[in-house]
Amino acid sequence: MLNAKLTNKLATVMFWAIGFGILSILAWFLWHILSAGLPHISWNFLTRKPEEMIAGGGIGPQLFNSFYILFLSLLFSIPFGIGAGIWLAEYARKNWFTDLVRLATEMLASVPSIVFGLFGLLVFVTTLHLGYSIIGGALTLSLLNLPVLVRVTEETLRAVPDSYREASLALGATKWQTIRKVLLPSALPGLVTGVTLVAGRALGESAILIFTAGVSVSRFAPDLNLFASGETLSVHLWYVRSEGLVPDATQIAEGTAALLVLVVLILNLLIALPSRLYQRKMAGKSS
Amino acid sequence: MTTIATQDKIRVQNLNLFYGENQALYDIDLSMQAGSITAFIGPSGCGKSTLLRTLNRMNDLIASVKITGEVLVDNQNIYAPDTDVVSLRKRVGMVFQRPNPFPMSIYDNIAYGPRIHGIKRKRDLDEIVEKSLKQAALWEEVKDRLNKSAMGLSGGQQQRLCIARLLAVDPDVLLMDEPTSALDPISTLKVEELTQELKSRYSIIIVTHNMQQAARISDTTAFFLNGVMVEHGETDKLFTNPGDQRTEDYITGRFG
């Protein structure tokens, strides 16, 4: 038998090495993307419209569309996703129907996004005559987000101790009062994490939006028209790299990639920090 | 609905309770007066907590529970089909074995009950919060940090907070399910003293593992064994001169 102390040391060293390994991969990735892209980001780049033939185009409308579609998709998916999660965690009885809903949710969560894209193309773009549009993209994207939100909501609510439910009901609260005033606030940090996850995925999603929101942008920017075609940053990145004719396609792609990474990072911080502070305060640790 | 003219605050009649196939309580008959403390004692699994939870229908939360018989609170059967469970629980409140404050500020914990029952004015809420915390003998310790999280309090303070939270909805009956079993001796003493101060205004029913505690604080004691109520009588008499051999065996420490 190998010396227990020695194996313990080896294990410690190995896990530290894995930790550092992961960190350095992330750092290398960020360095690579940002160092290539940041020099191309300028005020003009962020605000100007893209060019089809000549150099010097910007990504203003795409930046706007990314957030507009993200916002709309969350608007559609959060009420349904959280609602279904609440139903599964608090109302649904344990029977075949509930199991079926849960199974369906899990299957939806593992469908490749390109399949959602084709579905959106068939249903929203073609059958419902929405065309390649912001609304079509947002609706399809919310279908992608839905199962994740359902699962996260159900799991976070299940993690809330039963003692909170008992305490609230024993004070004469109704079930809905208990959910709204005790369970959801307690589950908030978990829900926020879920929404952040979904938002990050939506910002980076391209396959779905190529088929549903299109690869061109409105002549006006910003254009709030739901039926306007709405190319996003991720789609633009794919477009200029694969089909773009502009001479500075590489620079635009690198700038767009760096911008996308920055946007996701900032979004994460903006959502996660207040949630952390709230959690800290409620745990009674800060004074 | 059965109505019997009586002074009893709570009257349990011929109550049987089943968890699925297993019967947990057998033919319980028991009455409790207003303004007194009743203790339920007995070994683990004897059904005393189960009985306590039938009194404000907390057992409704468990799907497999079936109940026959009646529980009358103020002469009204709380298992009658037209019972408003929400208003029943407002009248018959409960303190649990482990302190379970909400992850909110001390103030919001106390104001939770009044708020869900429709009190909105800040001045009214302030008054209720202060009064409830004073009644629970916690005001002096927390008055300067009402906006801090209740999770930062000690276990004993948390339990008194839970009692204050209950008093804030102005119940008639306090059900206490081993309220001191997770507390240190000093906190236990404080909670026991509290029950003595509260008993003139509330009917208190306390489940306890601790026979000395039952002897110290209760007016009447009921002894349970394997789902059967063996004996219910004045605490002094039950502990000094029990009427049943099984009670004597238990209180003298021969089992349990």
From TrEMBL, chain A:
It is a multi-pass membrane protein. The keyword Hydrolase does not apply. PROSITE patterns: ABC_TM1. GO terms for cellular component: plasma membrane. GO terms for molecular function: phosphate transmembrane transporter activity. It holds the Pfam family BPD_transp_1. It is found in: Cell membrane. InterPro entries: MetI-like, MetI-like_sf, Phosphate_PstA. GO terms for biological process: phosphate ion transmembrane transport. Keywords: Cell membrane, Membrane, Transmembrane, Transmembrane helix, Transport. The chain crosses the membrane at residues 12-34, 67-88, 100-124, 130-150, 182-203, 257-278. Residues 63-271 form the ABC transmembrane type-1 domain. Gene3D superfamilies: MetI-like. Belongs to the binding-protein-dependent transport system permease family. CysTW subfamily. This is Phosphate transport system permease protein PstA.
UniProtKB/TrEMBL annotation, chain B:
The keyword Cell inner membrane does not apply. InterPro entries: AAA+_ATPase, ABC_transporter-like_ATP-bd, ABC_transporter-like_CS, P-loop_NTPase, PstB-like. Keywords: ATP-binding, Cell membrane, Membrane, Nucleotide-binding, Phosphate transport, Translocase, Transport. It is a peripheral membrane protein. SUPFAM superfamilies: P-loop containing nucleoside triphosphate hydrolases (SSF52540). The keyword Magnesium does not apply. Residues 10-251 form the ABC transporter domain. GO terms for biological process: phosphate ion transmembrane transport. It is found in: Cell inner membrane. GO terms for molecular function: ATP binding; ATP hydrolysis activity; phosphate transmembrane transporter activity. GO terms for cellular component: plasma membrane. It holds the Pfam family ABC_tran. SMART domains: AAA (SM00382). NCBIfam families: 3a0107s01c2 (TIGR00972). Part of the ABC transporter complex PstSACB involved in phosphate import. Responsible for energy coupling to the transport system. This is Phosphate ABC transporter ATP-binding protein (PhoT family). It comes from Tumebacillus permanentifrigoris.
